[in-house]
Amino acid sequence: MGFKSFLVLLTTIAAVQGITCPNYFDPVGENCYYFSEDYADAKSWDNARSYCQSLDSDLAVFGIDCADTDRLIKHIIREDYTRMWVGASDEAQENFWVWIDGRPVDMKSKLWYYNEPDSGSSYDCALLEPSSSPHSRATLYDSSCSSSYYYVCEYGIHSA
What we know:
With 160 residues, the protein is of the alpha+beta class. It has a single domain (22-155), classed as Mannose-Binding Protein A, subunit A (Mannose-Binding Protein A, Chain A, Roll), CATH 3.10.100. The chain is 24% helix and 23% strand. It has three helices and eight strands. It has helices at residues 3-17, 45-54, 66-78, and strands spanning 26-28, 31-35, 57-59, 84-89, 98-99, 125-130, 138-143, 150-155. Strands 1, 2, 3, 4, 5, 6, 7 and 8 form an eight-stranded mixed β-sheet that branches. A hairpin with an 8-residue loop joins β4 (84-89) and β5. The radius of gyration is 17 Å and the shape is globular.
């Protein structure tokens, strides 16, 4: 086997074994994610979204593939991340939550914390809060979009 054939073989094996993510993005399941980690990096929902878009990504969305959502949430809990903005909002129409890719948010999803969303017109953006409880899960809350939190960007996601 020649050197060029060997390189092609190695590239093929790497592609089959996993995905290649851009710098600063971590592979989780079938997708690539950027996790803000530094306190100075906490942003409002709009500013977090703008930053994600500058990285050819957008705030993370859930529900396209349940297995990927589960892997992402387990990763966030395992890495001990704190509250993070994700890509859902009801800013355009009160009480009609949509993901930034245009899909409606499943309001019966077990991801929503009990009685959430609950804060009326002043809380229009979705926040994921991991729990270190024995059940190790994460839940969605509605929050004021102007509050500063960490955020998670998903590579290749674009608004509808």
